């Protein structure tokens, strides 16, 4: 009677024995994934202004909701910042790698475009600061 | 009866010391996420001695730890989590169809949900909900760890307690 149980049978036995457990844990995991998706879509704040930093110093600030073009002149070269339809991007630059030009347009709070050779950082900022972090520290 | 009382006291002491030990374990990655070591003692008491004693042990633990190391707000948070997780554990255990590990996972999740609810009332901003999914997931993970530990220890202590007649 000492029949060897194959791995597959063992797994099936386990699932049969622990059916209700697996259902409960499955439901919990589904709930957590759904809530994660909900939060990620609901809570992403739209930024309200675009700030330009050159060499870590604030240079200029623009309203994100107004279409605008601005030529950022630095010692090393230039970046052309274009704000259109509530989104900001770098349309043109004379840096070597063109990473800033290839970065996709930004509109959400905290997003940024960085041009390292020119030491330029373009960042989206929202007016109301993050209340959650202020409390939970 | 005397034996039950002394074992209850033993478990209370165990839960209190686990709460204290937990303050030495840094929360990795997620701010505020704790492993919930004290729940290990509570769930063991629930399975070994029954719901009534587990509830007593949990309340004793929260009050003593709160007065020793915490303040009014931390007692408030701990109580809310404990009440919700206690209800979940007792109800799920009554179904007799779930293993210790699953009960522990549900307890961990409901504990965190209880804390979110109190935070909603205290802070009065729905921004707290931003942390909800993170806390649910961390509840699942910590509940899993505690549940597996409790299952192993339960198997071994069950016989001992039966022998001394508790």
Quick recap:
Chain A is α+β, with helices and mostly antiparallel strands and 137 residues long. Helices cover 33% and strands 31% of the residues of chain A.
Please describe what this structure looks like.
The complex is a heterodimer of chains A (137) and B (166). Chain A contains four helices and seven strands. In chain A, strand 3 (68-73) and strand 4 form a beta hairpin. Chain A has helices spanning 7-17, 19-42, 99-102, 131-136; strands at 49-54, 57-63, 68-73, 78-84, 87-93, 112-115, 120-125. Helix content of chain A is 33%, strand content 31%. Chain B has 166 residues and is mostly helical. The mean pLDDT of chain B is 88. The A-B interface holds A 18, 20-21, 24-25, 28-29, 31-32, 35-36, 38-39, 43, 131-132, 135-137 and B 31-32, 95, 97-99, 101-102, 105-106, 109, 123, 125, 127-133, 136-137, 140.
Ordered list of secondary-structure elements with their pairings:
The complex is a heterodimer of chains A (137) and B (166).
Chain A: H1 7-17, H2 19-42, E1 49-54, E2 57-63, E3 68-73, E4 78-84, E5 87-93, H3 99-102, E6 112-115, E7 120-125, H4 131-136
Antiparallel strand pairs in A: 1-2, 1-7, 3-4, 4-5, 6-7
Chain B: H1 2-22, H2 38-49, H3 51-69, H4 72-95, H5 100-123, H6 132-164
Helix fraction of chain A, binned, reads 25-40%
Instruction: Give the chain pair forming the largest contact, with residue counts.
Output: A-B, 19 and 23 residues
**Overall radius of gyration of chain A:** 25 Å
H/E element order of chain B: HHHHHH
Shape descriptor of chain A reads elongated
Low-confidence stretches of chain A: 131-137
Strand order of the largest sheet of chain A: 2-1-7-6
* β-sheet strand percentage of chain B: under 5%
| Average pLDDT reading of chain A | 81
Q: Which spans of chain B have pLDDT < 50 for at least 5 consecutive residues?
A: none
What gyration radius of chain B follows from the Cα positions, in whole Å? 16 Å
Helix run count of chain B: 6
